[in-house]
Amino acid sequence: MGLNVITDRGEHFSKEELRIEMDKFGQQMPERSLIFLLCSNTIGSLIGYLGCLEHRIVPIMLDSTKDLDSLHNLQNVYRPNYVWAPTDAKFVEGDTPIYECQGYGLYKGDSEDANLYKDLGLLLTTSGSTGSPKLVRLSYENVKANAESIAEYLSIDENERPITSLPMYYSYGISVINSHYIKDATLLLTDHPVIQKLFWMFAQDEKATSIAGVPFTYEMLRRLRIFKMDLPYLKTMTQAGGKLNAKLAKEYIENAQATGKRFFVMYGQTEATARMSYLPLDKALEKYASIGIAIPGGRFAILDVNGNEITESDVDGELEYWGKNVSLGYGECREDLQKGDENHGVLKTGDVARRDADGYYYITGRMKRFLKIYGNRVNLDATEQFLKAVTLSVACVGVDDKMTVFITDESKKDAVKDLLMQKTGINTRAFDVRVIDAIPIKSSGKLDYRVLQAQL
Questions:
Q1: Does one domain contain both 329 and 398?
Q2: Which of 90, 171, 348, 456 is the most buried (most CB within 10 A)?
Q3: Which residues form a coiled coil (predicted)?
Q4: Domain match, 383 and 333 both
Q5: In a domain, 262, yes or no
Q6: How would you write the pLDDT of the chain (456 residues) with one tens digit per residue?
Q7: At 158, which CATH number?
Q8: Strands (DSSP E) found in 220-298
Q9: Is 74 inside a domain boundary?
Q10: What is the domain range of residue 61?
Q11: What residues are paired with 353 via a beta bridge?
């Protein structure tokens, strides 16, 4: 078990060399220390993460570019024993590191024993908690089980060369690292965004075999005409982190099949470590709008409003997941990190879904992403999906009796209004279509609905 690493700076690390650096890092702290890890897709950040995992040090994975106020707030709430951060980070400005490696420094924090739960292994911010101290508590078993499941259905082996196209602090990004780490693969490590030429030059030069992305990633890659690029070694593309427009999913699946590549539609949440489902390749075209089936070792159920399982097909209900990758629960302060397993392998996803007659699942919306408009229950996610037939740059938010639709193309405004009325049957007075310069996107690549909601 290990990773060979090639960085975009031309550095090469064998898994043995990486292990030496991980061990040096891990020996600087006692086991069960709590540490802030300010992440970037760099070798220093990777050494810190894997060193924590192997030496039973518990990291809180954070965006190294996160604003200082948010970081200081988290520091006050969780009082980490140590901080592992880029030596030029403003968060540690003026402090002296007790250890340095590959542009990162280790800084002392709170000396009080954190008294962490014995199986707690990793702490990730929730996708919906920007600026909030709420964390997802993951066990070593959660991380191991999910990595093994992903490696199994993607057929990962030591010949794989994934490129880091997602942030390391994001559950999807870290799952790419974990699932290849257990298979002795080679990680192509870059902090360049996928829209930059340097990213693709690195992918081409180092023969990247796979790329991971959220819906926004694949919308951008379509504009970049990814299937026209000279990438003969790129064989696998994976998509999760939100629902990809069905028409676009079909286009990617068709193009992948025509060029000898694999395009995997997947579904997951941080609360399930990363992944809960995948769409098998042999059913990808037939079921292109589906999230597929549960990953190896997991299972789904659909529940009615009373919590009873719905056994009939094509009936909407809340999607529930069972598996060893379900997190221990949430944490909102240091004391919460002493708690044990509160979920017991069961996760209510908060997503509305249905199951077809063949046992394939389809996400139809979020439990909380609904508005009541003139007595009608309107699904914001479903609305966004059908509006993408007019424009891919669209986001829907709102309050009861008024939906606000944000787009970036003034010329599409009337077409959006017409389609809204046609599809919902609701008078256009219930819809406010606004044109903005750009739809706000989080660093994870997901739409930032909070920024839009604040504009109402």
A1: no
A2: 171
A3: none
A4: no
A5: yes
A6: 899 999 999 999 999 999 999 999 999 999 999 999 999 999 999 999 999 999 999 999 999 988 898 899 999 999 999 999 999 999 999 999 999 999 999 999 999 999 999 999 999 998 544 456 789 999 999 999 999 999 999 999 999 999 999 999 999 999 999 999 999 999 999 999 999 999 999 999 999 999 999 888 998 999 999 999 999 999 999 999 888 889 999 999 999 999 999 999 999 999 999 999 999 999 999 999 999 999 999 999 999 989 999 999 999 999 999 999 999 999 999 999 999 999 999 999 989 999 999 999 999 887 888 887 876 778 898 899 999 999 999 999 998 789 999 999 999 999 999 999 988 888 888 999 999 999 999 887 889 998 999 898
A7: 3.40.50.12780
A8: 236-239, 262-267, 277-278, 293-294
A9: yes
A10: 4-296+324-339
A11: 317, 363
The reply to whether 104 and 211 lie within a common domain is yes
Stated as kind and residue range, the H or E segment containing 450 is: helix 449-453
333 & 384 share domain: no
- Amino acid at position 246, single letter: A
Does 162 reside within a domain? yes
From CA 251, how far away is CA 74, in angstroms rounded?
A: 42
- The single-letter code of the amino acid at 437 is D
For residues 213 and 73, membership in a common domain is answered with yes
Task: Identify whether residues 114 and 212 lie together within a single domain.
Answer: yes
pTM: 0.86
Q: How many CB atoms lie within 10 A of CB 241?
A: 26
Distance CA(288)–CA(265), nearest Å, equals 8
Question: Which is it for strands 346-355 and 329-331: parallel, antiparallel or unpaired?
Answer: unpaired
CATH code, domain carrying 389: 3.30.300.30
Contacts of residue 299, Cβ cutoff 8 Å, sequence gap at least 6: 321, 322, 323
